[in-house]
Every structure is written in structure tokens, then in C-alpha cells.
Amino acid sequence: MNGIILCRSKYGSSARYAQWLSQETGFKVIDTKKADIKEVEKYDTIILGGGIYASSIAGIAFLKKNITALKGKRIFVYCCGLAPYSDEVIGILKNKNLSGELSDIPLFYYRGSWNMDDLSFPDKAMMKLYIKMLEKKDQAELKDYDRPMLEVKDKKVDWTDKKNLESLLGLIKAKGE
Fold first, then answer.
1. Residue-by-residue DSSP string for 52-108
2. What is the pLDDT of residues 112-143, one digit of tens each?
């Protein structure tokens, strides 16, 4: 089994999952910004992971741009976000990131971590505006995936857990199904 893990991590959760995957599979990890399709297409299994920003998976552009060169490969995508896992969250992420030629690619969602103090200035400003918008909404109108933002806005939390990778690792290690 030969493979590679492409990862785009801004605040560390996606990179943590990539390192855990690497430990379990022996696959090397490379940042999607440094990935070269000529190198990536040499592998049978490609795992792409990234954080979620405005429902977009960081690094997914590499996959979209190069999907033709990767036909016939075993491809898996994982992403990390703040919201708890739900079918609604998965549906939103699949529709925005894995439509068309990418629609058959398995998607795995993991909760990441949160620390407002770690955010870049633009991200912090955007998140503070988003939180204010959520606080003004009628609580009954809030989506389940918005509630955690109000619960953790001023806290430092880390939901990453190596155990979350079990189902993805099972697929990776399966022989070509």
C-alpha cells in the first residue's frame, strides 16, 4: 500500500490528524500548497485533509484542479471544524466541496479545536462579527452547528481525538474496495 496525505492546516487540527494518519499508515504528509501533481499521481491512495472555512475545505482546490490526473486512485477527504458531527453538516460540506466528479469520494468530518486568541487578525475580526450576529438571533432559530460557537467563543477547547480516525483507517487499509 502506497499513499500520501495532503493537508492544509491553518491552526493545527487538520495537521494533527494528518500526523496521526501518517503514524498509522506510513504515508508521508505534504502541505497542499507544496504538492506537485507529478509526485502525487505516483501514489495509489491519496488522502486530503483540511480545516473548514465558510463551509469550504482548505486544500480542496488541489483535488478539484487535478482530479483528471488522479482518476482510478483511492481518494479520501477529511476535514476539521467546530460544529458537532451531523448529517446536515456532512451534506453542506459534500454539496459545497465534493460535487460533480468528486461526488463519490468518501468524506470524513472531525471536530477540531478552538482558541480565539490563536486566530489571525482577519479571522478573529470575522469570527467576532459572526458571533455577534449569532447572539442577536432568536435562540430557537439557531442551527445546531451554530450553537457551539456561542458556547466556546471565549474558551480554549480541543476535540481532536485519534480514535476518530478508525473508520477512515479501516477504508484505507481495505484492499481496493
1. EETTEETTHHHHHHHTGGGTTSEEEEEEEESSPP-HHHHHHHHHHHS-GGGTTS-EE
2. 987 878 878 887 888 888 888 888 888 888 88
- pLDDT exceeds cutoff 80 at 171: yes
3-state secondary structure at position 31: strand
Residues 6+ apart with CB under 8 A from 1: 25, 44, 45, 172, 173
Rg (the chain; Cα; Å): 17
6 three-class SS: strand
pTM of the predicted protein model: 0.86
Which residues touch 138 (CB under 8 Å, ≥6 apart)? none
CB half-sphere exposure, 96, CA atoms < 13 A? 15
Mean pLDDT of the chain: 90
Identify whether the C-beta of residue 93 lies closer than 8 Å to the C-beta of residue 55.
yes
Q: Is 101 left (phi over 0), alpha (psi -120 to 50) or beta?
A: alpha
Q: Which three cell numbers stand for residue 46?
A: 491519496
Residue predicted with more confidence, 140 or 20: 20
CB 84 within 8 A of CB 144: yes
